[in-house]
Specification:
The protein has eight helices and 15 strands. The chain is of the alpha/beta class. It has a single domain (about 5-275), classed as L-arginine/glycine Amidinotransferase, Chain A, CATH 3.75.10.10. The strands form five sheets. The protein has a three-stranded mixed sheet, with helices on one face. Strands 3-4-5 form a three-stranded mixed sheet, with helices on one face. Bound molecules: arginine (ARG). Arginine binds near residues 66, 72, 122 and 257. Arginine binds near residues 71, 91, 255 and 261.
Length: about 280
């Protein structure tokens, strides 16, 4: 029996723009070009579809420019959707839209207790059976522990010490159980030791390419879709037996996001042990 197609949720960039500044990449003065953003988003979508992904779409909403970053909707685990608790009020308004979509598509929707923040798959990524969890800027360590207890999985919190890499998915990308991309300078010495102790093959991404959001990649089997102009990353992926696929996503970098943030895997990431 052929394996089911990977499923990914995306949201078209109809209302995307830089309307507030909640991370160091965003500048209202610089803005984003809506035509270029639409073209880049469509190329990403077509690229994923070309890799055999079933892309599902959320209806864009006026006044929610960051709704395109579906990675932050919440964390998907089997048939459960743990809805995010956004740090910033401007993004918290996205949650009812995400929750309605997941409820309508057969997921059990779980909300976190009040008073703790968690920004979904942007800050919580499975590599094998372990949930690697970025905290400090957007998500709280307490929220990660609550989620891990709820799911019955082991969680390793990693402090994100560099404000430019404010979500874990900007500096860490599991490729398979025991294999991940990472940008060392986004972590402190302790975080780097935790990663080295628990991920057998860590592939470093340079500062220049991490700033091009090279770590913010979408993994589909052996294909890794990442932002353009990351030649060293592409070469490292080839050396490890992966197929790099570069897509220009410069308009989304202006909002502090790239390929991975624009997607949410609905059937479990390839690197997640529980998927198999
Ligand atoms: N402007 C968005 C924010 O600051 C970008 C989110 C990017 N998402 C991600 N998973 N890294 O929240």
């Amino acid at each position: 029996m052929p394996a089911a197609a990977p499923r990914i949720l995306m949201c078209p960039p109809d209302y995307f723009g830089i309307e507030y500044e909640i991370n160091p990449w965003m500048s209202r003065a610089q803005g984003a070009d809506p035509t270029a953003a639409r073209r880049q988003w469509q190329t990403l979508r077509d690229t994923l579809a070309g890799l055999g992904v079933a892309v599902e779409t959320l209806t864009p909403q006026p006044g929610l420019p960051d709704l395109v970053f579906t990675a932050n909707a919440g964390l998907v685990f089997g048939n459960t959707f743990l809805s995010s608790r956004f740090k910033h009020a401007v993004r918290a308004e996205e949650s009812p839209h995400f929750e309605a979509w997941f409820a309508a598509h057969g997921f059990g929707v779980v909300t976190l207790p009040e008073g703790m923040f968690h920004e979904g798959a942007g800050d919580a990524l499975f590599c094998g059976d372990t949930l690697f969890a970025g905290y400090r800027t957007r998500s709280d360590a307490a929220a990660h522990h609550w989620v891990a207890a709820k799911l019955g999985v082991r969680c390793l919190p990693l402090e994100l010490v560099n404000p430019r890499f404010y979500h874990l998915d900007t500096c860490f990308c599991p490729l398979a159980p025991g294999v991940a991309l990472y940008h060392p300078d986004a972590f402190d010495g302790y975080g780097r030791r935790v990663l080295a102790a628990h991920v057998g093959t860590l592939i470093p991404v340079t500062a220049a390419e991490a700033s091009r959001f090279g770590c913010n990649a979408v993994v589909v089997g052996r294909s890794v879709v990442h932002n353009a102009d990351c030649p060293e990353l592409s070469a490292a992926l080839v050396a490890h037996g992966y197929r790099p696929v570069a897509v220009e996503l410069g308009e989304f970098l202006k909002a502090g996001g790239s390929a991975k943030c624009l997607t949410l895997r609905l059937d479990g990431e390839d690197a997640a042990g529980w998927q198999c």
